[in-house]
Design brief:
Blueprint lengths: L6 H14 L11 H39 L5 H11 L5 H10 L1 H11 L1
Length: 114
């Protein structure tokens, strides 16, 4: 009995990987073995950086809140402690947006906890 090979599935798999490699430079975009390795590495980076993105944004929000708080004579940790004590439940994302784009609203929040 002759050997049966599923060419349809293997071709589809290669096409799927090469489609993901679109935009890569040099042989990474059109040579199967090179593209496969590049795509796998890229997917690993994408998974890792979806997690890192959350950490990066939290750090950015904290910096923005700290800068806004210091304009009102308070540190970030003081502000966050007083917000918690006053029962004001605003997350860092919202506070950072207020500090950057709506300074008068941020000033109202700070004055409420002073």
């Amino acid at each position: 009995m002759p050997r049966s090979v599923n060419h349809v599935a293997s071709r589809a798999k290669r096409k799927r990987v090469l489609k993901l490699a679109k935009g890569f430079f040099g042989r990474k975009k059109n040579v199967w073995t090179v593209a496969k390795n590049a795509v796998e590495k890229g997917l690993v980076y994408a998974y890792r950086d979806r997690k890192a993105k959350k950490r990066d944004f939290r750090g950015l929000w904290i910096q923005r809140i700290n800068a806004g708080a210091r304009l009102h004579g308070m540190s970030y940790s003081e502000l966050m402690g007083k917000l918690k004590k006053a029962g004001i439940d605003l997350n860092r994302k919202v506070l950072a947006d207020l500090a950057m784009n709506h300074p008068e609203a941020f000033a109202d929040v700070v004055n409420k906890v002073k």
